Fold this sequence. Notes:
Largest sheet: 5 strands, mixed
CATH topology of the domain at 42-179 and 194-229: Pyruvate Kinase, Chain: A, domain 1
Order of helices and strands: HEHEHEHEEH
Radius of gyration: 31 Å
Structural class: alpha/beta
Shape: elongated
Number of helices: 5
Amino acid sequence: MSRRHQIAVRLGGFEDVRAILAAMKNIALTELRALGGLIELQRRAMASIERAAADFLRFHSPPGDALQAGVVCIAIGSERGFCGEFNETLALGARRARERGERLLVVGRLLGQRLSAQDEDWILAGASVSEELPEVLERVAAWLERAQRDTPGAPLHVKALHRDPAEFEPITRTIAPLPLPDAPPPRYAYAPRLTLEPAEFFAALLEQALVLSLQEAFSVSLMAENRWRLEHMEGALRRLDDKTAAMRRRMNAYRQEDITEEIEIIMLSAEALAGERAG
């Protein structure tokens, strides 16, 4: 096989790889657009809940602080690869949480692979695309319910450790209990009319707020993951294009050498033929 043919075969493989990388880049772009709209809706819903809670607290006292049974840290990593060092600092934060005695729940198998354990009860599959988020949240909620049953008598303190597109390092946010808004002076003479008992209403309001807070943490993490993946794909495409251009230059150089050799052979053959005729 000639050198030019070898390079041509490799260039064909590069074209296949480039098509795959470009497709992955487009998927990441699509996910970023979808997640941007989803997070905006989640934040609007949370703002409505916060306004309702503030109106409620103008006329009703919040429930007293309850003792907490323990701390659960939900470390949200990636389910898929090709996202650079996305999981590395998350793994470091998860190890520190475990060293503090916090119960660890890892979501995302690539992050789980970086953390050693004797069993995998605390590792759950994560979301590869935004459409999988509801199923992931159901698994997380079921896991938290089991953890709460293991420690009856007091609510868990739940934190989420995840990436944020606006931050270089992972962030930690409190999922439960949520901080209560300050109660401003009443603006109205009469309290809001409720169809539920105040304690029941406020408990349901906090439950909705917890669900939205958990949804936003996972959505923001998936957006950050796709940002990392997009940058990783763009870098890989640039390196592949540079390597392809270099190999094309080599192939052209080999082609020029082959042409030169052919010309030399023709000239030598012509000289030999002319010598035979002269003789």
